[in-house]
Amino acid sequence: MGTTDPTLPEVPASERARQDLHVMALQGALAGFFVAGELLGWFGDHSGASRAAVAWVAVYHLARVGYVVRWRAALRPVRWVEASIPFLDISCVTAAWVVLNEPASPFWAVYLYALVAYARRMQGGEYARTAVFILANIVVAEGVVLWRRGESPVNIDVVTMVVIGATMASLAHKVGADWREAQRQARALAETDALTGLPNRRHFLAQLEGREGEQFGYAILMMDIDDFKRLNDEHGHLHGDAVLERVARVLRANVREGDLLARYGGEEFVVAMPGANLEEALRAAERLRRAVERDTPSSISVGCAVRLPGEQLDDVLRRADHMLLLAKRSGKNVVRWEVQKRSA
């Protein structure tokens, strides 16, 4: 149920796919139980309205599976469909409760599940609108059932259900907000280098590995602080840490908007430049080299490689690292690159 929270870091496609499959399995099992129960005579009155409700639940869930497989799994969600799904989900719960025609049916607990599930994925006005819609459906569904049984559509049971639902919505919203903040902090710790504040190697590789399509071109700049071991030996590790922080600030201030800068490990940094050709990459490498030389007590050597069509990330990184090694061996504080091969 629900949509992706835009305040959270991007969830890997494989994880989103697992989440979608899990939710579909749960909802599909519940919907299948309801449809089978009505068809087998376990509940419902087999009236035209009952059959229509069953048909709606079955058709909607089949269509939802098709949408998830065809669009969401392909990372091409349709905005208006995503916005409609929570309300269509709830309409199925309401239809099922009316078909069951039992004022005290445990099926109403599905509304509470929905309040908790949506609180994990929504916040602010989006969650408030969804929660109000769910509470309104509780009133409507219970009222219709009572009316069909010749009873007053408003009684203490309806009020109690709404009070419980509203309390659950408030509690779920608070727990959901705390969960999002904890997840944000956990991901930040997992993806960020504590010393420099830059993305770490793990996050850098994950970002590029998720965009390894044939048409995605980029350049890689591998950078290493020159004579860093000597700095540590002569001035101590605290001084070395200060140099790392300062170089990171200078690099961050001089990369292009949209480029991905990360601390690759030790005194090594890396930049991925989406869409950059060799000429653009070399200009950026020289800009970074000069900025570090000018604004820090150190210098950097740079190795540059541009991805070839269909080339794997590991191969691009390996070529850039080889160019960096050549830069270190040829005097340091220089940029080295490999002549880009042309396809036949």
What is the radius of gyration computed over CA atoms, rounded to a whole number of angstroms?
Answer: 29 Å
Q: Compute the number of structural domains.
A: 2
- The spatial strand order of the largest sheet comes to 2-3-1-4-5
Helix content: 55-70%
Give the low-confidence spans. Answer: 1-11
Counting helices, strands and paired strands, the structural category is alpha+beta
Q: What fraction strand?
A: 5-15%
The number of helices is 11
Write up what this structure looks like:
With 344 residues, the protein is α+β, with helices and mostly antiparallel strands. It folds into two domains: 13-191, no CATH class; 201-337, Alpha-Beta Plaits, CATH 3.30.70.270. The protein contains eleven helices and five strands. The protein has helices spanning 13-39, 48-72, 79-100, 109-121, 124-148, 156-191, 201-209, 228-235, 237-254, 278-295, 313-329, and strands spanning 218-225, 260-265, 268-274, 300-306, 335-337. A five-stranded mixed beta sheet has the order 2-3-1-4-5, with helices on both faces. Helix 4 packs parallel to helix 6 (156-191). The longest helix is centred in the middle third of the chain and has 36 residues, at 156-191. It is elongated and about 90 Å long. The two termini are 50 Å apart. Residues 1-11 have low confidence and may be disordered.
Highlighted features:
344 residues; alpha+beta; Alpha-Beta Plaits; 11 helices; disordered N terminus
How would you concisely characterize the structure shown here?
The chain is an alpha+beta fold. Helices cover 63% and strands 9% of the residues. A five-stranded mixed beta sheet has the order 2-3-1-4-5, with helices on both faces.
